[in-house]
Amino acid sequence: MRKKGELVSFRQDIKIVDCTLRDGGLVNNFFFTDEFVKDLYKANLKSGIDYMEFGYKADSDLFDRDKFGKWKFCNDDDIRAIIGDNDDGLKISVMADVGRTNFKRDITDKANSPIDMIRVATYIHTIPAALEMVEYCNKKGYETTINIMAISKSNDSDLDDALEIIGQSCVDTIYIVDSYGSIYPEQMRRLADKYIECAEKYNKKIGIHAHNNQQLAFANTIETLTMGVSYLDSTINGMGRGAGNCSTELLLGFLKNPKYHLTPILTFLEEHINKLKDEGIVWGYDIPYMLTGRMNQHPRDAIQFISDKRTDYSSFFHYLYDKDNL
User: What is the pLDDT of residue 70?
Assistant: First the structure.
């Protein structure tokens, strides 16, 4: 395993991708005020963050627009209403799920769009469809990523085959995604080594998207950073589905690049994140998420457990154990 960089230095290839609006939107169905989104955009600009992910390009034939805020669908005009001409260097990204995006209808030419990067989320068994989307977006002029979800459930040979196929594609960046927050730092080092070997062979970049079920999102992010991973996903105060993500404020406090500034993120936290919590929006580490992470299971059961205001943790643990061993 090779390490890249030192604690007292910084790497120019590091990019921070703010996912607060996209992953955070999963906890409130994307019902953010325009003031929240505009202030988040300004905070990202001032802090030196490289990409801001607005949300999803979801198919409105599959998702009822009345049940979600507009960042579930990321209309280009809605993005422009927030960022204007966006002349200050902050790039814009959106996520497109395989099977949940009408990409040929809803993703236009880059020349006519405020979006810079399309991130395609896929499982291993849907990689051919993901590659079709990536090729389409690449021809439209976008930067692209493939985010392979739930890799903690995949065997090594399938993952090796997937990386080889993706490496030969036109995608720019390949993401390690710890969907269930179940991967430990030692395992992350081995995964990063595997992904980076592919990246070096095919001239790709590697990213990391970590979940915080076992309070390892930050640790896993900086662990892969030391191995050479360069695209780092984070959210302010870790806001995201279930246990949430690597916290932007932790990441900015760790990185030594003088282009990054912590104060704008702290100010946004004070003015907006605490207000969301006061309104009853819930995310972050909790015992049920720790248990699903430990059992390498999707957090949907933990989300329901918390929604039901249950505290019978031992019963929940045995339920997950029995479910995993049926």
Answer: 97
Query: What is the C-alpha to C-alpha distance for residues 256 and 252, in angstroms, rounded to an integer?
Result: 8
Q: Which two tokens stand for residue 156?
A: 């090594």
Residue carrying the six token digits 């100010």? 267
How many Å apart are CA 137 and CA 77, to the nearest integer? 19
**DSSP string of 300-326?**
HHHHHHHHTT---HHHHHHHHHHHHT-
The two tokens of residue 313 are 């943790």
Please enumerate in sequence order all residues whose Cβ is within 8 A of that of 12, keeping only pairs 6 or more positions apart, or say none: 257
Residues 166-212 pLDDT 10s: 999 999 999 999 999 999 999 999 999 999 999 999 999 999 999 99
Summarised one tens digit per residue, pLDDT across range 226-262 is: 999 999 999 999 999 999 999 999 999 999 999 999 9
C-alpha separations of 53 from 79, 91, 152 in Å: 11, 9, 24
Distances (CA, A) of 65 to 68, 70, 89, 154, 224: 5, 8, 31, 34, 37
62 vs 58: CA distance, rounded Å: 8
CA distance 160 to 261: 38
CA dist 223 and 150 (Å) reads 19
What domains are defined for the chain? 15-278 (3.20.20.70), 287-324 (no CATH)
Q: Which two tokens stand for residue 105?
A: 């209808």
Give the separation between CA 270 and CA 320, rounded to whole angstroms.
37
CA distance 2 to 203: 17
* Burial of 64 (C-beta count, 10 Å sphere; 0-12/13-18/19+): exposed
The C-alpha atoms of residue 238 and residue 246 are separated, in whole angstroms, by 5
On whether the CB atoms of residues 324 and 297 are closer than 8 A, the answer is: yes
DSSP secondary structure of 8-34: TS--TT-EEEE-HHHHHGGGTTT---H
